[in-house]
Amino acid sequence: MRDVSPGLTQIDEPYAHEFVRGNIWWRQGRDRDLLVDTGLGIASLRQALRTLTATQGLTWREPIVVLTHGHLDHAGGAAEFADVRAHPGDVPAAVTSLHGRTFAQQLGAKPDPSLPEGLLVSASPRAAWDPRHHDVGEITATPAEAGDIIDLGDRRYEVLHLPGHTHGSIALLDRVNRELFSGDVVYDDILLDDLHESDPEDYRRSMDLLRRLDVNDVRPGHGSSFDHYVLQRIIRAYTSR
Ligand SMILES: [Zn+2]
Q1: pLDDT tens, position by position, 140-162
Q2: CA–centroid distance, residue 69 to ligand 1 (Å)
Q3: Fewer CB within 10 Å, N or C, the chain?
Q4: Domains of the chain listed by start with CATH number
C-alpha cells in the first residue's frame, strides 16, 4: 500500500502471485470516495480501508466501487461493498480456483511457464478457507455504461467502454486532471487479448480511442502508474503487431 499523490492510494495483495496481483486504487474525494477494483477478495478489503481511514483520523464513508472488468483479480472483493458499478458485458464468476493451472484454464490463458503449478496465493486468511473453491459471494452491480459520470465533488470521472481484454472492460477518465484508471486495457507488460472473453478486433478499436486521449497519469490494473509517453508506446506496440 502506498500513497501515490494526495488523496490517492495504491493497494495490492502481497500474498498473491504477481499474475493475479491487481491494483486497487482508492481515491478519496471531497464528497465521495472512489475505489477502482477490489482485488481477489481473500481478506477483507473493506476492513483494511476502514482501518486506514481511522489511522488518517477520518470518518468512514461508503465508497463508489467501480470494477474495470469482471476478472477475479479485480472483482473478487466487490461483494463487501454496497455501491458497485460494472459494465454489464462482464459477469464475474462466483466460485474460482486459485490453483495456478485450473485458474489459467478457467480464464482461457495459454500455458505459461511463469505460472506456478500450485497455488497462486502464499497465505490463508483463515483455517477453513479452501483456495481451490474460492467463493467471492454475490456481487450486485449497477450498470456502468460509456459516458456515465462518477462525481466525487472535486473530481469527475467519465466511464469509457474499452472492450478487447474482456467484453465489459471499462476505464475511468478525469479530463480536467488528465488521469485515467485503465484496468487491464493498458498496463506496462504483456497485454492479454486471447482469453475466453477477449476480442482482438475490439481491442484495436479501443486502442484507437485511447490513442486520441489527452492523459498524463495512467493508473493501470497491474504495475506502477505511467505517463502519456509510455501510454503511447504501449498502444503503438500493440497496434503494430
Ligand atoms: Zn483481466
Answers
A1: 999 999 999 999 999 999 999 99
A2: 7
A3: C
A4: 2-239 (3.60.15.10)
